[in-house]
Amino acid sequence: MDKPIRSANEAAEQIVRWSDEQNISICFDKAGKMKSCPIGSSGACCSNCHVGPCRLIGSNAEEEATGVCGASLPSIVARNFLRKVVSGTAAHSDHARDMAFTLLAVATGEAKDFRIADEHKLFKMADILEINHQGRDVMEVAKDVATTLIDDFGRQRGEINYLKRAPQKTQERWKKWGVIPRGVDREVCEGMHRTHMGVDHDPDNLLLNAVKVALADGWAGSMISTDISDVLFGTPHPMRGKAGFGMFKDDEVNIVVHGHEPTLAEMIVLMADDPEMQEYARSKGAAGINLGGMCCTANEILMRHGIPTAGGFTNQELAILTGKVDAMTVDVQCIMPALVKLSERFHTKVVTTSDKAKFTGATHVGYEEHRAAEIAKEIIKLAVDNFPNRKKNGYTATDQQDLVAGFSQEYIEYMQGGRMRASFRPLNDAIQVGRIRGVVGLAGCDNPRVPAQGLHRYLAKEFIKSDVLVVSTGCGSHACQAAGYMTPEMALEHAGPGLKEVCEAIGIPPILPLGSCVDNSRILTILTAMAAEGGLSEEIGGMPGVGIAPEWMSEKALAIGTYFAASGVPVIFGGESPVGASNEVTRIMSETWYERFKGAFHFEPDPEKIFDMALKYIDAARDALKL
Ligand code: BF8
């Protein structure tokens, strides 16, 4: 019997099939063999104390089942959800903290290999933070901006700085429901406390806390990461690039930069062009050094340098299976521990670079920001030294798709009116007159439990056909890039007539990649700018926009979905619901949150239903706005 399709990315699927022939077990094969636990996956298992784990099952579980301590199913489901949001928020925010300390180290001269790449953006941040920058030394301003943002992590009272960027009405909703986050660490800590055995048992109260923690992610952790990355490495603007495994070269040293924090990745990009490194590569018989990105790091270096992307989450093992990767550097988040064992069959060196994330059997080169260039060179040399060890025992893939990446809020504003008249007016107008029906954010992971990347592809195509502009982030972008959807030509061939007209007039693809997962914060600031422009909703809630993560798998995705819902965006996630065991929790997140925040959080595994539900939200918002 033919095996079902594991990846909708044709090149990826061929490598998966080859791995079957070679008896190499990778995530697709493991997902087929190991079904997810139905009790845990729906949120009905409580393992927060060692009297349990307690599994709350049965036909009347919602009303009658309890854990040994008496915890009800809704409180256990809400507690489990809150813990996941806390973890996702912690991940993004710890990344942001590192970025803020890097900015401080650059400002004080300790991180001498970095510079301020975008002063204009730094001054914009200073304005938002009410820091004077007129006539001041740039590094002094950078120091004040970094210090002010670092305060967002440890603040005990008051509120997170960037919340004031949100539309007034959105802020009022947060105040009314008591979900204003004080400091990131305080909210993460309190969320963990509330979910400890015997603390918060009211599902609505637990879920309001999830909202509060998640707002700290969206409007602090993620937004700080985005802004500081732009300041240090440049605010993205469109550039052409390539996606696909065909990026690996036979005669060059291939290095894949995988993970999330852009700092070391940026330095590896710079040092790969260093004449000393090029000469070193030649001395080992290579024609040069070829870099590729993986997961969110790929988005970061693609949109700023045009470095080719080897794809997202489910592509990471496949890259090693090509046998052409001389080194894969990894830092934090979404890195499969399976990489190390897999790499032993080939010649690839897996290099861990964060002291927070070590993998047994990997080579560790700990990153230190005051020695960034030196460490980047050390890693490149290690890859070069490994080049002669290639065994030529991998799968040769040739796929490469053209793409355009690098759409920031700043560029989208600029492209609608030039430097002097940058605005969101044309986009708002296009929505008002119906040329663009609405906007969908296609975000989140790809997942080996569905034909990977397939749900992204299906939805992206259907939305643009229906005149819905798509903005994408994270592995959603990778899925569309590998499919060849991110070119202006895609609009001509597949977009509905209204969207096509707008794309042609501005010269953009119908799907705009906004960057990595922390760059979902760009969607928040874009929606805020659209609200300020007038003619649509005056708050984020009520805009004809929907957030979708059809193949999500990480806790970060749940934090993102929650901060979007809390900011006023209806959100639909695919797959089985992690709160599906409780009707009450499902109702609070889909209905009560809609009443309170104008956003909602749904889980729906059927992609056609996701599509219909999203269009219903968009059309209902248009009706309410009388468009
Ligand atoms: O943060 S989309 S698999 S790579 S979690 Fe991870 Fe999901 Fe990809 Fe980046 Ni985001």
Structure report:
This protein is of the alpha/beta class and 627 residues long. The protein has 4 domains: 10-64, no CATH class; 73-233, Substrate Binding Domain Of Dnak, Chain:A, Domain 2, CATH 1.20.1270.30; 245-389, 3-Layer(aba) Sandwich (Rossmann fold), CATH 3.40.50.2030; 408-624, 3-Layer(aba) Sandwich (Rossmann fold), CATH 3.40.50.2030. The chain is 50% helix and 10% strand. The strands form 4 sheets. It has a 6-stranded parallel β-sheet with strand order 12-11-10-13-14-15, with helices on both faces. β14, α25 (583-597) and β15 form a beta-alpha-beta unit. α11 (262-272) packs across α16. It is globular, with a radius of gyration of 24 Å. The model has no long low-confidence stretch (mean pLDDT 96). Bound molecules: FE(4)-NI(1)-S(5) CLUSTER with Oxygen. Residues 260, 295-296, 312-313, 333-334, 444-445, 474-475, 516-517, 554, 556-557 line the site of FE(4)-NI(1)-S(5) CLUSTER with Oxygen (BF8). This is Carbon monoxide dehydrogenase. InterPro entries: CO_DH_a-bundle, CODH, HCP/CODH, Prismane-like_a/b-sand, Prismane-like_sf. [4Fe-4S] cluster 2 binds at residues 46, 49, 54, 69. It catalyses: CO + 2 oxidized [2Fe-2S]-[ferredoxin] + H2O = 2 reduced [2Fe-2S]-[ferredoxin] + CO2 + 2 H(+). Keywords: 4Fe-4S, Iron, Iron-sulfur, Metal-binding, Nickel, Oxidoreductase.
